Amino acid sequence: THGLQDEARAAISAFLGADDEDVILTHSTREGVNVVVYGMDWKPGDELLICDLEHPALTVPGDVLAQRMGVKVVSANIPPLATQAEALSAVASALTEKTKLVALSHIQFTCGLRMPIKEIAIAAHNMDIPVLVDGAQSVGHVGVNMKNLDCDFYALSGQKWLMEPNGTGALYM
Prior knowledge:
Blueprint: H1 2-16, E1 23-26, H2 29-39, E2 47-51, H3 56-69, E3 72-76, H4 84-94, E4 99-105, H5 117-125, E5 131-134, H6 146-149, E6 153-157, E7 169-172
Parallel strand pairs: 2-3, 2-4, 4-5, 5-6
Antiparallel strand pairs: 1-7, 6-7
Helix pairs in contact: 2-3
């Protein structure tokens, strides 16, 4: 099975414009998100920045971090019909010295808003904050290239726009 896994990882890496060693196979977007979110060393008072349009795959881990570790979940208010500049401004203005991770969907499942991930990543990286992207609604629907997006983590599922079986996914790191 390692041959098949290696082949699958190479295919998804090429599709994402990533190096093979930067991608792991997962069972879902949610699993990839959880690897990142729960793999970080959170302290009380740290902030997780999401937005108010997010899927439960991002809001639920935030709730768990808040309840178990005292993490403050900050939710940027982004109107469903926001322009790219408005979405960027909402996220960038919510960044603080306590922000430990920015976690956003590339395309919001609630309204189809495509987030300006590269610009958000630049703003976050200027403050040494990593960016996690939920790509469940984007990969296979719009072109994605990890080197162009400049995010630190990108979780995706196979069963949506890639038309792969349930229980397939990947995480770019």
